[in-house]
Design brief:
The complex is a heterodimer of chains A (about 60) and B (about 350).
Chain A (H helix, E strand, L loop, with lengths): L1 H27 L12 H13 L1 H8 L1
Helix pairs in contact in A: 1-2
Chain B lengths: L11 H28 L4 H29 L4 H5 L1 H24 L6 H7 L12 H17 L3 H7 L1 H8 L2 H14 L9 H27 L9 E5 L9 E4 L7 E6 L2 E6 L13 E3 L2 E3 L6 E2 L16 E2 L1 E4 L2 E5 L17
Antiparallel strand pairs in B: 1-10, 2-3, 3-4, 4-8, 5-6, 6-7, 9-10
The chains are: A mainly alpha (about 60), B alpha+beta (about 350).
Chain lengths: ~60, ~350
């Protein structure tokens, strides 16, 4: 069971890592095409956790 | 106002509620820890883990209670407008609880702490030895996703149905947290106080939801499938400057308002972000959405100039002392003069 648990924890880590890369792209370049373009840095960083956690939904919406 | 995303600004009232909430959380934690040190010579780290865990579960009960309470009484609506802040604080308190627990119980070994918490002990095949921390992790992930997507931007970006679906998973988080406590700490509580506390909390939350549902059913009239006209009943049954909401078969909800000019009906879904217009009120002669304050003329369904948002109007008539509303919406921009209530 420990092996499965380790795979799950690595999976969670990889998911968050991909989310971090995607999230940084989203709040910098991605938001240029959104209604938030030109808004302050604070609101962009407020959106970063969401982009990290739901990046598959955002990617799906783009395709 | 427009159909595009418009950020909702913070205001004095929101700062006030947040300050009260943070102060209450701080007082709860202090009282829990001070009482813990007096009643048992416990390790401070364990007391902190328990205090943050207890605080998170109490806050989650409040978050779940706010929705039905606001439907049962207008006095609780200010809490509804600030519910997302409750949710964010709940997730952060839960995160601190999880971080401290991982450090305390799983951070000293060679195994990855998360793997150790979900698979390093116990047996998933039995209730007594169930690795209860895995349930806590599931609840925490859901609460974090909800907190991270609580900003209005995500509501607009994901679309209201997807966002609402995502946030309905709070009930899954609640069930996981109940399991986490019942199969974890409650197993070692000889007084059974925790067990009974959880049971009372679950009964209260269920009772509030059932009461709000029953009240909603009383107010929601189902339209007769054979006619587009729905009998609302006595005009005075509609509260002044508020609405009665009905749900026609296969149709959108309709809000019937009684205001200074008479009775008007508009779609009950705000064109800004699908807010519940039927739970709003008339301010300055305009239907005002309870979510973000977007306003519409009850006779035309149009937002005041220079804004361009619109909701659809519905025809209203009074026959034999009863109000009737047409379930078929008018084309956007149709003006329906308010029907005078006979004195």
């Amino acid at each position: 069971m420990l092996n499965i648990a380790q795979y799950i924890s690595y999976g969670l880590g990889i998911y968050v890592l991909i989310g971090l890369v995607f999230g940084l792209y989203f709040i910098t370049l991605g938001l240029r095409r959104e209604a938030l373009a030109g808004r302050g840095i604070i609101i962009r960083f407020m959106l970063l956790p969401g982009a990290i956690l739901i990046w598959p939904l955002l990617l799906k919406a783009k395709t | 106002m427009s159909h595009d995303y418009v950020p909702v600004q913070w205001n004095r009232q929101k700062y006030f509620y947040d300050a009260i909430l943070l102060a209450a959380v701080f007082i709860f934690l202090v009282i829990f820890i001070v009482a813990g040190t007096k009643t048992e010579a416990g390790n401070m780290m364990i007391l902190m883990i328990r205090s943050f865990g207890a605080c998170a579960i109490v806050l989650l009960h409040l978050v779940l209670a706010i929705g039905p309470l606001a439907r049962l009484s207008d006095r609780f609506k200010p809490l509804l407008y600030n519910r997302r802040h409750f949710g964010v604080i709940t997730a952060l308190i839960g995160l601190v609880h999880a971080g401290l627990a991982l450090m305390m119980y799983h951070g000293m070994g060679v195994i990855n702490p998360i793997a150790s918490a979900i698979g390093g002990y116990g047996n998933y095949g039995t209730l007594i030895e169930f690795p209860f921390e895995s349930l806590g992790l599931i609840a925490l992930i859901i609460l974090l996703i909800m907190a991270a997507t609580s900003h209005d931007f995500w509501l607009s970006r994901l679309s209201p149905p997807v966002w609402k679906g995502l946030h309905m998973s709070v009930y899954l988080a609640y069930a996981a947290l109940i399991g986490h406590v019942a199969l974890g700490t409650a197993q070692f509580d000889k007084s059974n106080g925790l067990f009974w506390g959880l049971a009372v909390g679950a009964v209260l939350i269920s009772g509030l939801h059932i009461s709000a549902l029953l009240k909603g059913r009383r107010l929601d009239t189902q339209a007769d499938i054979n006619t587009t006209w729905v009998n609302i009943g006595d005009p005075m049954s509609i509260p002044l400057n508020k609405a009665l909401t009905i749900t026609p078969q296969n149709g959108e909800r309709i809000a019937i308002f009684r205001h200074a000019k008479g009775i008007s009906a508009v779609d009950a879904v705000c064109s800004h972000q699908n807010g519940p217009l039927g739970e709003g009120c008339i301010i300055g002669g305009l239907v005002t959405c309870p979510w973000h304050g977007f306003q519409f003329d009850p006779e035309t369904g149009e937002a005041p100039a220079p804004f361009t948002d619109k909701v659809q109007t519905h025809a209203v008539k009074i026959e034999n002392g009863n109000v009737w509303v047409n379930a078929e919406p008018d084309p956007f921009g149709t003006t329906r003069i308010a029907i005078q209530v006979p004195s």
